Amino acid sequence: MHPSISPPKEVTQYKQIRHQYLTARPCTRDGSFLKEPIPEPEPVQPPDATPENPWSPFPDRLAFDWARYHYVCLQSSEDEIDKGLDIWHATVIKHRFKYKDKETDDVPWRNAQDFYKTIDSIKAGNVGWKTFKFRYTGLKPQMPPRWMEETYELNARDVLVTLEQQLGTTEFDGQFETMPYEEYDHAGHHVLSNLMSGYWANREANKIATDISTHGMMLVPLVAGSDKTTVSIATGQQEYHPVYTSPGNVSNTARCGHGNAVMPIAFLPIPKTSVPTLLITRNKSGLPELSLSGVRSVMHFPPTLMAQEPFTHDFLRADIYELLAPDLLHQLIKGVFKDHLVSWIMDYLHVAHGETAAFGIIEDIDHRILAVPPFPGLQRFPDGRDYNQWKGDDSKALMKVFLAAIAGYIPSAMVQSIATFMDACYIVCHNVITAPALEHFRESVERFHKLWNIFIKAGVRDSISLPRQHALKHFYKFIHLFGSPNGLCSSITELKHIKSVKEPWHRSNRYQALIQMLQVIVQMEKLTALCRIFLDNGMLTSGNFLFAM
User: Fold this and answer.
1) Could you give the CA distance from residue 126 to residue 533 in angstroms, rounded to a whole number?
2) Strands (E), 303-456
3) Do residues 182 and 16 touch, judged by C-beta distance below 8 A?
4) pLDDT tens, 394-420?
5) What is the 3-state secondary structure (H, E, C) of 98-136?
6) CA atoms within 13 A on the CB side of 52
7) Using CA atoms, how far apart are residues 431 and 487, in angstroms rounded to an integer?
8) Domain ranges of the chain
9) Contact by Cβ (8 Å): 504, 344
10) What is the pLDDT of residues 108-127, one digit of tens each?
11) Phi, psi of 340, deg, nearest 5
């Protein structure tokens, strides 16, 4: 980064100009605004609580702690829960026998199934799933492919109810923006961070506020994302395609954390298709016909099919062409850096030095990376840069040591090209981006796009016309619109895969696993919501009792 442009500290108090009309005034359930002074909200009472038992549906705190520990912390299997209950029961019997205490409470559950029924009965955080079955009903060729004949299941739940659950928790206290705002540092420079600080939120609020009846209301943008994940490589690449949602009001920090700022709302069925191309033509009567072509060619569609609109066409605030946010992970870190620049450097060594010498140089580069001393913030690479399966964190860690490792082996223009890209990349990875830093990013991207011609001159590339390289040009505009990209990065959904897909899958018996996974997700969310209510009511005093989905 340019020495005169240092990243601002999040703790710095900037000048904020909040929206004039969409001010998120407190109101009753029917929408009537409360009069000043606004009374302090009372803690939400556990929905199952009774005067006799505030821990309901659990008989007492011990039962709740036992359930939380085994189901959430240990993720115990049904067998392990049964064994745990047997040990608990044996302990009670021994206590009664030793102390002649017949009043000692018995174990609250006979077995794991009873235990699960208690969790299912929790009313807090209950957002259930529904299954929708559908199949292709359009034109078919004489020999239709398999995907045209199968029935698919879409598992989804109510987005609005999910958002209400996210907005109704105290989990994001201090990390939630109730209204759009503009922020400026002490020098008067515009500062962009959370989604609500961007031009888009302020612009949409201005549009809504033209209706006077909306004044005092709260704008709640919806952030949605979908990303494929694989749960089992050994058993045939079992894939899932979850869709996640998050209220745009939460801070980037909260959305990147492990809490419920991001929640799954759907699991998409993705048909397996083959290479043959579908050709739509018209017969002698003018009716459309569908046929399969064994060779790849341009798809032919009748005018009515060409005029299909995106599903967001009727959404008042959703322009699909504008709302596709930039992605730090797949476009910059894994894309431009790992898939392009690192690969091109290796290709250059083969072109410039031949196969044998290139392998020797690459081995020395690996030794240099391996020799990086332990230091806070630096990752060790025991195998050099040769990873079979890269992760985003690996690519980010390699960026810190890569320039030093390749120095002396490639032309200075290539080193300058990579250094310029890294300069731009580090700027947009900040959680807070000032106007001068954003201008420096734009200038760095322009320099990088000029410097990359060295790879063409060196014979590594014939041309550079790649989507992920081109995406860099759009970051400047999107940061102005949506704030810092780190709050909209696909690394957030990849992290969420662990709790919402991978761990629930491992807790299933692998047969019709998705239904079992959805049940685990709901049960985890119920326990999380109930735990938060207990904390808010002072029934639990340690932050260690709070767990995240």
Assistant:
1) 14
2) 433-434
3) yes
4) 888 888 889 999 999 999 999 999 999
5) HHCCCCCCCCCCCCHHHHHHHHHCCCCCCCCCEEEEEEC
6) 3
7) 8
8) 61-120, 130-173+220-324+490-545, 328-487
9) no
10) 999 999 999 999 999 999 99
11) -100, -70
Inter-CA distances, 357 with 94, 308, 527, Å: 74, 55, 59
State how far the Cα of 449 lies from the Cα of 446, in Å rounded to an integer.
5
Residues 517, 228 contacting (CB under 8 angstroms): no
Specify the amino acid at residue 406: I
Across the beta sheet with 222-226, what order do the strands follow? 130-135, 151-156, 263-267, 242-247, 222-226
User: Is the pLDDT assigned to residue 1 strictly greater than 60?
Assistant: no
Sheet strand arrangement including 15-18: 15-18, 181-184, 190-192, 433-434
pLDDT of residue 387 exceeding 60, the answer is no
277 C-beta neighbours (distance < 10 Å), count: 15
User: End-to-end distance of the chain based on CA atoms, in angstroms?
Assistant: 36
Residue type, 327: D
Structure tokens belonging to residue 203: 């612009």
Collapsing DSSP to helix, strand or coil, 95 comes out as: helix
- The set of residues, in sequence order, having a beta carbon less than 8 Å from that of 151 and lying 6+ positions away, is 133, 134, 135
DSSP single-letter state for residue 250: B
Q: Which residues pair with 156 in a beta bridge?
A: 130, 266
Give the amino acid at 4: S
Give per-residue pLDDT as tens, 159-194: 999 999 999 888 898 899 999 999 999 999 999 999
Beta bridge partners of 190: 184
